[in-house]
Amino acid sequence: MAVIGAPKGYRGPDSAGAGSPAAEPGRALPAALLYQPCDVTDLPFELVNELEDPSGPIGQERAVVAVEFAVRMRRKGYNIYALGPSGTGKHTVIEQLLRRRADSMPTPPDWCYVNNFADPQKPRRLRLPSGRATGLREAMRRLVEELRVALPAAFERDDYRARCEVIDQQFRQRSEQAFGELQRRAEQKGISMLRTPMGLVPGCISQRM
Q1: Could you give the residue ranges of the DSSP H alpha helices within 72-132?
Q2: What pTM, to 2 d.p., does this model score?
């Protein structure tokens, strides 16, 4: 029976040889059982930079297997919760596993959210081919910058003002026509319509005897 952490060559209390330390029940362990020297000549390298970086977290094989299983789940409602002391690399490990999984899957489309003028609380979503969302965002940004200059200039042009005058004149004509028709029908009922700053005021038409 080999004792983990025992001195080199120690085989337990039943091994032969006088003077070998032994663990006795109910008593403190001998110091020789708590320390194992390391002979540097047995190491297969001279400098630590000769060693390759570990491919994953050391001593967390079960956790890695669990996370790899979780990222393969393609159903809604499944989540990954990593619990452990701060600074142990949980975030880094999970991010690496997620990126490795993502590299083996098809590239997903881009999703953009745009304003919904009918209901601003419910923006519309646009599905675009992968990589097109950034171009759309930049194009919309340039469009807004151009409109900030173009719109005020358009409202100051002579043709815009002329068009406003035409629309205003058409509106006044329609208003006069509507008022004339209303006044004609009111007179048939013996009612007169008077214009005041507050609006239209009905009055009675006096009958001469």
Answers
A1: 90-103
A2: 0.40
